[in-house]
Amino acid sequence: MAKTILPITILTAAACLFAADVEINGDIQADYASYWDKDFSPTNAANQDIGLSLTAYMDENFSVTVNTLTRSTFINQDGEREDSEIRHGLARATAIDDSEGRYTAFYFDGIQFRWEFTPGAAFLFGDLTYNAGAFNYYYWRDTGRYAAIKRDETVRGVGMELGEGRVYIGAAENNISSLIVYGSYPFEILSKTDEHLVITPSADWAFGDDIGRSYTYFFGTEINYSKSKDLMNYGVMLAWGTHPYQGTGVHTFLLEPSFSYDFFNIGLTFFQALLADEKEPVEKQIFTDEQTLFAIEPSFSLHKKLAIGLAYELHDPSNEIDDDTFHFIGPNIYFYPTANAELVFWGGYNKRHIGANTVSFGISGQVQF
Questions:
Q1: Grouped pLDDT means (10 residues each) for the chain, 369 residues
Q2: Contact assessment for residue 94 and residue 74, using Cβ atoms and an 8 Å cutoff
Q3: Dihedral-angle region of residue 179 (phi above 0 means left; psi in -120 to 50 means alpha; beta otherwise)
Q4: What is d(CA 20, CA 9) in angstroms, rounded to the nearest whole number?
């Protein structure tokens, strides 16, 4: 959806002049990595992923938000440029000497008007983005690329918010002749100081002769449970989603439990997709590029600003192909300089059934404000 930002500069400036308050938010991610081949020769890469939003509050009930975005790019096997990925494999990283790919321009990424006409209820107009089944697994947290149920979809239209519930109706951004209706609502089953249980169903439906995507609808449910007792905390996130592909249902499942006691923590991710057609490419049928993922990381909090973990990951891009599975194991050293800021020194060994095994290490940073 990104467009050049110049056409909206005047609108943004005007809104700021008459606004009662202006708020700027951002999510900034960057990394550097070296990938070493079997001859111990490095290939260096660096990525940036920056999203900024400006919200002008005209009064306490009405606001307008403008979003901007810039992402590093790389040249794929077909010679085309794609968005690179933070802390991913070499094939999707921006080469350190690719200045065109590393330092891309900021683009307009949506505008939204919001009117809270009564406490807890709001009317929205503009570019409305939704998703379902977001991962806690660190490589797949970007819902624009990965989701267990539905990755980011943006419509230009109207919406209603009632508490945390949402209904959006609008024109699809990727097609001129389709209309999408989306809705979700979290049902809070348990809401105690030390225990929470929330069940969130969500769905969308696309109308039109040419809807611009391979599925007419999606439906999914997320279950989040957490419990705390003294120094012990544990929880689990479960997600199930389904959508049709060429007339047959695709089903996806996500399990992410976590546990902590005092300074010890452990997190696990298991994702599995049941495809409509095992002979068709996996990435065309689901919202990830791997059919099976298992990842586990025990870690120790040595200080409120320092933690050390050891991650193991099993990746299977296609269950029908025997030799495409690969394993990754390596340490993560987490630094937390201040609130909403993180630096991670990471490394690991990537063992592949086909192709050369690789060793990699790097540093990644993220700040949210």
A1: 51 59 94 88 92 94 96 88 81 88 91 96 98 95 95 97 97 91 97 96 95 95 97 97 96 98 97 95 94 98 97 95 90 97 95 80 95
A2: yes
A3: beta
A4: 19
Neighbours of 168 (CB within 10 A): 22
pLDDT at res. 13: 57
Residue 276 CB contacts under 8 Å (≥ 6 apart), including other chains: 244, 245, 246, 247, 248, 249, 250, 285
pLDDT of residue 12: 56
Q: Rounded to the nearest 5 degrees, what angle is found at the Cα of 114, between the Cα atoms of 112 and 118?
A: 165
**Alpha carbons 55 and 369: distance in angstroms, whole number:** 13
Cβ neighbour number for residue 230 with a 10 Å cutoff: 8
Distance between CA 170 and CA 180 in Å, rounded? 6
Is-contact 108 123, C-beta < 8 A?
Answer: no
Give the CA radius of gyration of the chain.
22
User: Scanning the structure block, which residue is given the tokens 């990754």?
Assistant: 328
* Token pair of 263 as six digits: 């300074």
The one-letter code for the residue type at 61 is: N
Residue 38 host element (H or E): none
Strands (E) across 58-106 are located at: 62-71, 73-75, 81-83
How many angstroms separate the CA atoms of 72 and 92, rounded? 10
pLDDT of the residue at 18: 61
Distance CA 200, CA 220 (A): 8
Distance CA 270, CA 23 (A): 38
Residues 6+ apart with CB under 8 A from 10: none
Residues 87 and 134: their CA atoms lie apart, in Å, by 18
Give SS3 for 91. helix
Amino acid symbol at 273: A
